[in-house]
Design brief:
about 400 residues; transmembrane helix; four-stranded antiparallel beta sheet; alpha+beta; membrane; 17 strands; seven-stranded antiparallel beta sheet; transmembrane
Length: about 400
């Protein structure tokens, strides 16, 4: 098997609360025009609350070595600057490291802007290009953004301008009090639209340890991830919070429950919602099926159900089964309340599916006719034969009708 090269061309770390108290006060993420973005987005560690984001023009082996060295350094208590500096020992490799309380730094091969925002609101945007390590000091509100263009990107040549403009806009949002998770998503949208470096990748909330997981990463080797500036889901404008992910969302123009209009949620907006902690935040884990779309659609359904009914495994199972019956979720059997593992204290829900056998896409219908009879009807090759079966089934009803 030949796996194509991968390198994140856009790496961003944002810190809006260097005390680490705001659950949404630090975020990081990566994306690129290249394939195989799951190889380049390293979101570590939920327990250590730091991120290691990689990229560069070097080969995969030294990049992996640089990442491992940086992770080990952070786990041993090193500063982001010391960990990022290790990338300078590897040709063409870039490592961007950050935490909420220790700041951030980038080392190796890079073109970045370091953004700092003082307590009086002064924004400073400073360019750096492969000059040792570039540092966002601990205790400072700010960000680091790296951006280069990928060969073959139709928007090649835009990176320098977009890198600067996005850095300035992030500084303004930090100054104006937006959360780091929101700023990360907005920056992703701007970079995707204006530079073409648009495929996930993903993001992580460094304080709360929530990541986008495989929401946007490629489903198959040697393919691109999800474009961050394209529609990801449709969400009901009513209070029930119903939503559905693409591509199934293309079939819906209104909320199937109350007919209310649907609004489009773009992927960069879905990233914000996935890693931002709110009173309605739900972490959904899906087990039993890796089919494309099932995890995303299940997450949307569970989040909407929790919003309306709370952490009720019966209601969650009912909503999921409705989606299965309507064909929104395919390839899995109906779930029961016991298949829904709810932990309301940690705002987590686990959904355990059982894949259907025999290449079925949906469970058998629950009809008041035996399956053996359906098999018999399925084997009848003529309309006359089917009519005879119907006459046998409903002869008493027909006789009563004629008598009346």
């Amino acid at each position: 098997m030949i796996i194509g090269p991968a390198a994140a061309t856009c790496n961003i770390i944002v810190i809006t609360d260097p005390t680490g108290k705001d659950p949404n006060g630090a975020a990081a993420g990566s994306m690129s025009f290249q394939n195989n973005m799951f190889q380049s987005t390293f979101l570590s560690s939920s327990s250590g609350h730091f991120a290691i984001l990689s990229g560069g023009e070097g080969s995969s082996t030294p990049r992996l070595q640089a990442i491992v060295a940086s992770v080990k350094a952070m786990e041993a208590g090193a500063s982001p600057q010391a960990a990022a500096n290790l990338a300078n020992s590897y040709s063409g490799i870039r490592v961007l490291v950050g935490t909420a309380t220790k700041g951030a730094a980038v080392g190796g091969s890079y073109d970045v802007y370091v953004v700092t925002v003082s307590n009086n609101g002064t924004i400073t945007v400073t360019p750096h290009s492969s000059d040792g390590t570039a540092v966002l000091p601990a205790g400072t509100r700010g960000a680091i953004i790296h951006l280069r263009n990928t060969e073959g990107n139709p928007m090649y040549g835009t990176a320098s301008k977009v890198r600067q403009e996005t850095a300035v806009n992030m500084g303004k949002m930090i100054r104006d009090g937006y959360s780091a998770t929101y700023i990360l998503g907005q920056a992703f949208g701007e970079v995707a639209n204006d530079s073409g470096e648009k495929y996930g990748g993903g993001g992580v909330n460094l304080v709360s340890g929530i990541t986008t997981g495989d929401m946007f990463t490629p489903a198959q080797l040697n393919t691109t991830g999800y474009a961050m500036n394209t529609p990801y889901a449709k969400i009901s404008t009513s209070s029930d919070g119903w939503s559905i992910g693409y591509p199934a969302a293309e079939q819906y123009q209104t909320d199937p429950y109350d007919g209310s209009p649907l609004k489009i949620e773009y992927a960069y907006e879905a990233l914000i919602n996935a890693i931002t902690v709110t009173g309605q935040t739900v972490q959904v884990s899906v087990y039993g099926s890796d089919d494309i779309g099932i995890s995303e659609t299940t997450q949307e359904i569970v989040a909407a159900t929790v919003k309306k009914y709370g952490y009720d495994n019966v209601q969650i199972a009912n909503r999921i089964n409705t989606a299965i019956d309507s064909g929104t979720i395919v390839g899995v059997n109906h779930v029961e309340p016991k298949d829904i593992n709810v932990k309301s204290s940690s705002r987590a829900v686990g959904v355990y599916y059982k894949p259907l056998g025999n290449d079925r896409s949906s469970p058998p219908w629950n009809l008041p006719i035996s399956s053996s009879l359906l098999d018999l009807i399925g084997n009848i090759q003529t309309a006359i034969g089917l009519i005879l079966v119907l006459l046998v089934l409903f002869r008493s009803t027909l006789i009563k009708s004629f008598m009346r």
